[in-house]
Amino acid sequence: MPEVISPQPHQVVQRDGANQGSIPIEVRGAPAGATVVLVDAAGASVPCQPKLTEEGARLTGSVDGVPTGGPYALQLLSGDDEVARVEGLLVGDLWILAGQSNMDGCGKLSGAEPPSELVSAFYYDDRWGIAEDPLCWYNEATDPVHWGVLENRQAAIEWDRSMRTIGAGLGIAFGKELVRRLGVPIGLLACSHGGTSMAQWDPALLDRGGESLYGSMIRRVRAAGGRVAGMTWYQGESDANPDAGPVYGEAFTSFVNALRAELGQPEMPVLYVQLGRFYADPTPESERWWHEIREAQRRVEPDIQPAAMVAASDLSLDDIIHVDAPGMRRLGIRMARLAHVVAYGAAEEGWLGPRPTTVDVAEDRQGVTIRFESVNGRLIGTKRLYGFMVRSAEGPLLLGDCRLGGDGLSVELTFPAALPEGAELFYNYGHNPQGVILDEWDMPVPSFGPIAL
Question: What is the pTM of this model?
Answer without folding.
Answer: 0.96
